[in-house]
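Q: My labmate handed me this sequence with no annotations at all. I'd like to see what the chain might look like in three dimensions before we decide whether it's worth expressing. Could you predict it?
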Amino acid sequence: MKKSKRTFVTLIILFAVLTIAVLSYFLFLYQRNSIDISLLAAGAGYALAVAILLPLTVKSYRKYYYRKKRFEEVKRLYKVDSTFNNEAFFTERIKKEVRHSSKNGVIISFMIFSDSEKYQYYQLEKIRYFYGVVIQYFETLMLNPKYRKALTCGFEQNIFYIYFKYDEKEEVNRLISKIDNDMYTLFAKITIPINMHPSFGVYQISDKKVDVRDMIEHSKLALRTSINSFQVAVFFNEDLLDSQINNDALEQEIRRGIEKREFEVYYQGKFDLATNKFVGAEALIRWNHPTRGLFNPGAFIGECEKSGLIHVLDFYVFDQVCKDLGDWKNRGRRMIPISTNFSSSDFYRPDFVESVLTTIEANKIAPNFLELEITESSTANNYFYVMSVLKRLKESNVRILMDDFGTGFSSFGNLKKYPINAIKIDKSFIDDITVDVKSREIVDTIVRLSRSLGLTSVAEGVQTEKQVEILRELKCNQIQGFYYCKPMPKKDFEIFLSTNTFEEKEDIL
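A: Here is what I predict for the chain of 509 residues:
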């Protein structure tokens, strides 16, 4: 770089000296009447052109030189190798800037993928491609005159780091909004299936004496909170530290509980109103803690999702369900389809379908005895990819149920697109069906639509006889709730199926 700069300066000087020499010679000839006036005018035109072009040439080179220098700097900063490790470089780079800057500053941790586990499951060349797109984006952003002196970037593994100097806090929000929107624009043309959801954790620098490494860790804690709460950006505060301590302890207990198989699968039956028989059940998880008793999912599912343990727990349940079905089959017991729940992150794992089908095959049970419950929110980030997963499962005779329909992302238009077999009407509508006309109308609409599309309608959370009567009038197909069957362990459920008073026993094999 230095050699090319010296060469360019030397050429400019020689060019200027040559121009002065040529003009001096023309002027000397003119004074001695040895040159025509037209030739002198040509010389003057040449000098004028040099006077205009020379500054432009110098300016263009300075711009080129500056951009090339910054490009080399950024390329060194974003050197992509198999380690993806550059946090230390970023930390050292911004230490002086943080302490000596007269402006306000923030450190932002930025993650492209909402599922932290996904990084390790994609092939390295694909990871390089995904991050290469973002690297190029930040190269351009750091060269932008608006951010040139205010922005410093770095990364480690799947987290990008940004140090941003600003005057007004609104500038931080605008930068985050710009990056968020630009990421979606960049990835709109990428056809490789991946769940892309930009998330930001922001640490606002109030005390410049705080160790920069701690600042970065605080921004990463805010980032994890952003991901887990499905917010675009979260600003760090001290409450997050207290919450993190409690969550770490709970995570360790959950891991121990999984290893010691303290988690139990409970079954809740689904009752068909037309045949008056139990035609299926949902598998639900309970934690039988050795000292604190039985926990419902609300006490631990949230932490499992935050820590990435949700995948382990989902397949823990699915594996146990397949084993229970296999046991009922081997002992000649009554078998009914069992539905299990999977989190949205499960669907984006490359081995998800193979893992499901392998588990079914290993237990030698027919796939039509397994049902997978999904929510529309689980398909929202990458509709086409999840659709391909669901189609593969349905083609393998695994039934698909749309859970919690009527809430969140629910759309009647999507029902014709999804390869589903049944719709589960959310409990919030069933709770008010006896007193709220609007809830009843909504349930009636969903039931009618399900019937017209050839789908089974299942009402969740049914607890009273009055609710059952209304749902029977509306011709809802199936009922799930405490009125017919509370959740119970395998042995109790097995006994319940043969002794309950709701069914017509003579017709059941």
